[in-house]
Amino acid sequence: MASTQVYTDYHPRWLRRQVSTYWWLEKWAYFAFILREMTCLFVAWFVVYLLLLVGAVAGGAESYQRLLDWSASPWVLTLNAATFLFMIYHAVTFFVAAPQALVVHVGRRPVPARLVLAGHYVAWAAASALVAWIVLRA
Amino acid sequence: MRDRITLQVARYRPEQESEITFDEHEVPCPKDWVVLDGLNHIKDRIDGTLSYRWSCRMGICGSCGMTVNGEPKLTCATFLADYAPGPLRVEPLRNFPVIRDLIVDIGDFMRKLVRVKPWIVRQVEKPLSEGEYLQTPEELDEYKHYSMCINCMLCYSACPIYGLDSKFIGPAAIALAQRYNFDNRDHGAAERMDVLSEHEGIWGCTFVGECTKVCPKHVDPAGAIQRYKLTAAMESMKSFFLPRGA
Amino acid sequence: MHTRHPEPLLWMLFSAGGVVSAMLMPILVLLFGVAIPLGWLAAPSHARMLAVLGNPLTAVLMFGLCALSLFHWAHRFRHTLYDGLQIKHLNELLALLTYGGAAVGSVMAAYLLWRIP
Fold first, then answer.
1. A72 vs B: CB within 8 A
2. Whole-structure pTM value
């Protein structure tokens, strides 16, 4: 069937709807996604905090104590408490995504997703225990 | 339990108007009716000008995808009784240009699909005299779920990245490329990589994960994309450190 | 080379940063951000901190954590601004500010750790 009508990509009659700048507020899933992405801000803040800590330690016992006192001040404490919660959210969402990205084969069989997920949690627990031991032992 | 439901159906008549308007109709709501049955009832008995696509009415052709109460769904697989008494809002699939009423143009996807070469690519074809390609059940399982895609476009509709940037290749195209990449009869992974590892190929994806959630055939396009990111990144590292091949 | 853009490398840095920050930051925030300031646990002595941070292995790990986490932030933040606020036209500026910031931060981390006697 020959057609003399050729619709071009920019045919003016097609309705092209713009995505709103607030698309991420339209669905809970989108909002949770943006929340997950925003954990990176708290990651960056804590790197800054760690570097402040390292700098304070290098500067001597007094500067280290000053930093410890500053970290107990209300707004720093609140920020770090929020950082802790967002770090948990980051870890949980990262680990739940890992099995979808990481399909490993042992021989010819793929490792079940549950095992990949469990492996991440085991590693998390081990790493946390190791860090706590290094920091806290006298 | 109400036995009727109100449908708010989007209308777009380009020869008359430049915006979407909504018609409201009350349709019967027996417990085995799906949204598609409601639309057919409207078209058959109330307003014959309503335009929409459908075919198999059993979730295999991929024609009847629409936005139902804000979610991309196959209208042949969405039961009216779950939403009674309504109102239930039926709109054209998001992120695609609307041609008329509930019909969208998916030409963008069709062009992208061709570019990823969704067929078995072989360096040397096996002659017929040598018989069939043999494949174990494990080898089939590697790609089987990616082969279930019915091109219904619900994933593109759910993907915010595709909505914001139509240059993104998109979930279904990448999942279909992976269906062939993981098929051990295929030798075309390198050819597909050129297309997929473009800046807007897979790298636009930020793993929102909605595509996998809305897929009616459990294809898991999000997983396909993340696996491909790993593959492409490893390949990129290899070609950087070993430019003349390992 | 198949690609002439740095996305694959940046994504690998983002992934690595995501893993190390997910594994190590929760406990570190809990200890140094919440438990020690609130007095639930005694702070390690200055001498102990010097010993831990002065150890070459922990120093390297700390540098790795800081640098990779910064690149994780840079990549994720850039993409979120790109998609969330749709400011694609500022893409080059965004890339410079984020990855550049991460690079500067990494250099700072190396310097600060090196300063520990």
1. no
2. 0.91
Torsion of CA C96, C97, C102, C108, to 10 degrees: 110
**Fold of the B4-104 domain:** Ubiquitin-like (UB roll) (3.10.20)
Helix, coil or strand: residue B85: coil
Closest CA to B177 of B166, B161, B190: B190
Residues A123 and A131: their CA atoms lie apart, in Å, by: 12
Count the neighbouring beta carbons within 10 Å of the beta carbon of residue B223.
24
Residue A93: inside a domain: no
Q: Which two tokens mark B56?
A: 């198999």
Give this complex's ipTM: 0.92
- Phi/psi zone of residue A16: left (φ > 0), alpha (ψ -120 to 50 degrees), beta? beta
Shortest Cα distance, chain B CAs vs residue C8, angstroms: 5
Q: What is the CATH number of the domain that holds C39?
A: 1.20.1300.10
- pLDDT, one tens digit per residue, over B89-127 is 999 999 999 999 999 999 999 999 999 999 999 999 889
* Interhelix angle B107-115/B171-181, nearest 10 degrees: 30
Per-residue HEC secondary structure of B114-157 comes to HHCCCCCCCCCCCCHHHCCCCCCHHHHHHHHHHHHCCCCCHHHH
Say if the Cβ atoms of C23 and A55 lie within 8 Å.
Answer: no
For chain C, list the contacting chains (3+ Cβ pairs, <8 Å): A, B
Nearest CA in chain C to A24: C84
Beta-carbon separation of A100 and B229 below 8 A: no
Beta-carbon separation of A30 and B208 below 8 A: yes
- pLDDT truncated to tens, each residue of chain A (138 aa)? 344 455 555 556 889 998 888 899 999 999 999 999 999 999 999 999 999 999 999 999 999 999 999 999 999 999 999 999 999 999 999 999 999 988 888 887 889 999 999 999 999 999 999 999 998 885
Supply the CATH classification number for the domain B107-241: 1.10.1060.10
Distance CA C117, CA C105 (A): 21
